[in-house]
Amino acid sequence: MNFDYLYTFTQSNLLEVPIYFLIYRRFLTFRQTLLIVTLANSCTHPFVFFGFMGSGWSYLTSVIIAEMFAVGGETGLHSFASKLSWQRPFFAALVANLFSWQVAPALTYLFFL
To answer: How far is the C-alpha of 58 from the C-alpha of 45, rounded, in Å?
Structure first.
């Protein structure tokens, strides 16, 4: 098992769930939000981590393409699973992914380097 991936996935999920819940709280319970975010991340995150970030492209190119994929994929998956129109899931995915993209590396650096 790749514990680097497990750590990255867990960290990303823990950072994103509160953001999504703040945006979905009038429509979904915390439990529903946690389930949708975890399932959607389970679908998109492996492509981001193993595919785009391991592509050999420059870091910036990889991150931009990976985040566009994550936002698009999560928008569709969240919209389908929650029955919300795409606008709210799009905004939530954009905010949550930008937040985790910025904060996760800083946390990893603070705790592990």
So the answer is: 19
- 83 DSSP 8-state letter: -
Q: Which long-range contacts (CB under 8 A, 24 or more apart) does 65-70 make?
A: 67/97, 67/98, 67/101, 69/44, 70/44, 70/45, 70/97
CA distance 21 to 30: 6
Q: What are the tens digits of pLDDT across the range 97-107?
A: 999 989 988 88
| Contacts (Cβ under 8 Å, ≥6 apart) of 98 | 67
Predicted TM-score (pTM) of this structure: 0.89
Give start and end residues of each alpha helix (H) in the chain: 3-24, 30-46, 59-82, 87-112
Contact assessment for residue 106 and residue 10, using Cβ atoms and an 8 Å cutoff: no
> Using CA atoms, how far apart are residues 41 and 99, in angstroms rounded to an integer?
15
